[in-house]
Amino acid sequence: MTRQILALAVPALGALIAEPLFLLADTAIVGHLGVDQLAGVGLGTTVLQTAVGLMIFLAYATTPAVARQFGAGNLPKALAAGRDGVWLGLALGLVLAALGWVAAPALAGLMGADGAALGYAVDYLRWSMPGVPAMLLVMAATGTLRGLQDGRTPLIVAGGGFAVNIVLNFALVYGAGLSVAGSAIGTSIAQWLMALVYLALLLPRMRREGVGLRPSAAGLRASARAGGWLMLRTVSLRAAILSTVWVVTAHGTVTLAAHQLVFTFFSTLAFALDALAIAAQSLIGKELGAGDVDRTRALNRTMMRWGLWFGVLTGALLAALAWIIPRGFSGDPSVWHAATIGLLVLAVQQPICGLVFVLDGVLIGAGDARYLALAGLVNLAFYWPVLALVAFLPLPGEAVGWVWAAFFVYMLARAATLSWRVRDDRWMRVGAA
After folding, report:
1. 65 backbone dihedrals φ, ψ, rounded to 5°
2. Residue 327 contacts by C-beta under 8 Å, 6 or more apart in sequence?
3. According to its UniProt record, where is this protein mainly located (predicted)?
4. Helices 333-365 and 293-321: crossing angle, nearest 10°?
5. What phi and psi, each to the nearest 5 degrees, are found at residue 111?
6. 46: Cα within 13 Å, side-chain hemisphere
7. Which of 396-430 are b and which e, b meaning 16 or more Cβ less than 10 Å from the residue's Cβ?
């Protein structure tokens, strides 16, 4: 069991890091053009990340659907589920690309851009749009391969795409003199090359199994239905994060800077936990498809234990380094002090974070998207009143500490709703359906 988990989790971690690396490469290459260009790309990537991030359901819905059929021993139906997910991703991508091209000036202005930075932000957004259908297709194809218990191929494709992206961006920005637009065009081309690689891998398998290329109306409806619930789950998570930033901003620049530092470490650790969650999606879906309740139950216990222990280890490491880490990111002693307090609070909640991320993956793998969406709304109902106290009451000490204490309440609410769901076997729907 340990070998199976690691075989999926370790490659998933590498593939998860690839997308931020695409944006990091854009930032590094454009950064030498000037301040306005860098500011424009920064705003553009924020909009792009938000839009594409909401579409992560394409991978999360496709993985368990494919894994369930694969576990049931029905490879043609598994590939058909993946095919339908890919078609849905392509269709949504085309709609988003068209809307994004038209709305780019309004979106950049909404983010506060003006002057030369506004023009560069619009350029980056518009020339990123041709790559959006490929991005969403890649998400669905990645979910398909993970559902087929293949975590290595997405890692290889993501690594190759990152390397090609750097070469293209450098050549187009500096060699062709296309400035910010060249960076976006290079990334779009790299995304389409990745999409073509996935199609070259999946189409021959589909032909061998007699799976047609045309999507199934029932399959598209099932993908959209599961995806809709998963999108609502993602929206609730984004709402929690954005409302937290709103409260932090009201407390001043030092608090905002310290919060950004703490949130960076929360996000970094989340990558490792997401890798475990992705392994859970694949394995739980497969075992439920095979009808093996005992193994599903054992996998759930193992994943929960791994999440808790990972949280204990990272929490201890954060606590030990909380006084040192901020000095590497800021030269302001007031930011050091505030960030140290925030990191200590984050360290305390790490075991709960580990449990939450893993259980989230388990229930996604079980196809329990509706419960996750509704639980997300319940969690917000608990969190927002606590966050309001931090926003409006004159609390003593550093505000960033209180903000992260409030966020701990949110994570506890998530842990409670998810743990309640897996307290018995009712969340396990066995079989291919």
Report:
1. -65, -45
2. 336
3. membrane
4. 180
5. -80, 0
6. 16
7. eebbbbbbbbbbbbbbbbbbbbbeebbeeeebbeb
Longest distance between any two alpha carbons in the chain, whole Å: 67
Provide the total of helices (H) and of strands (E) in the chain, helices listed first.
14, 0
Residue located via tokens 């998933």: 12
Query: Tens of pLDDT along 176-219?
Result: 989 889 999 999 999 999 999 999 999 999 999 999 999 888 88
Smallest Cα–Cα separation from 354: which of 308, 316, 315? 308
CA angle at 351 for the pair 347 and 352, rounded to the nearest 5°: 105
What does the block give as tokens for 389?
């106290």
Judge contact between 55 and 94, C-beta under 8 A.
no
Q: Which of 70, 79, 433, 429 is nearest to 283 (CA)?
A: 70
pLDDT tens sequence across 336-348: 888 899 999 999 9
What is the pLDDT at residue 172?
A: 94
**Which amino acid appears at position 29 of this protein?**
I
Q: Is 72 helix (H, G, I), strand (E, B) or coil?
A: coil
Which residues, at least 6 apart from 188, have a Cβ–Cβ distance to it below 8 Å? 127, 128, 129, 130, 131, 134
Q: How many residues does the chain have?
A: 433
**Cβ atoms of residues 55 and 137 within 8 Å:** no
| Rounded distance between C-alpha atoms, residue 336 and residue 378, angstroms | 35
In sequence order, which residues have a C-beta less than 8 Å from that of residue 408 and are 6 or more positions away?
345, 348, 349, 352
Q: Are 15 and 154 in contact (CB under 8 A)?
A: yes
Alpha helices in 148-292 (DSSP H): 152-170, 179-208, 217-250, 253-289
Beta carbons of 209 and 68 less than 8 angstroms apart: no
Q: Could you give the CA distance from residue 407 to residue 308 in angstroms, rounded to a whole number?
A: 18
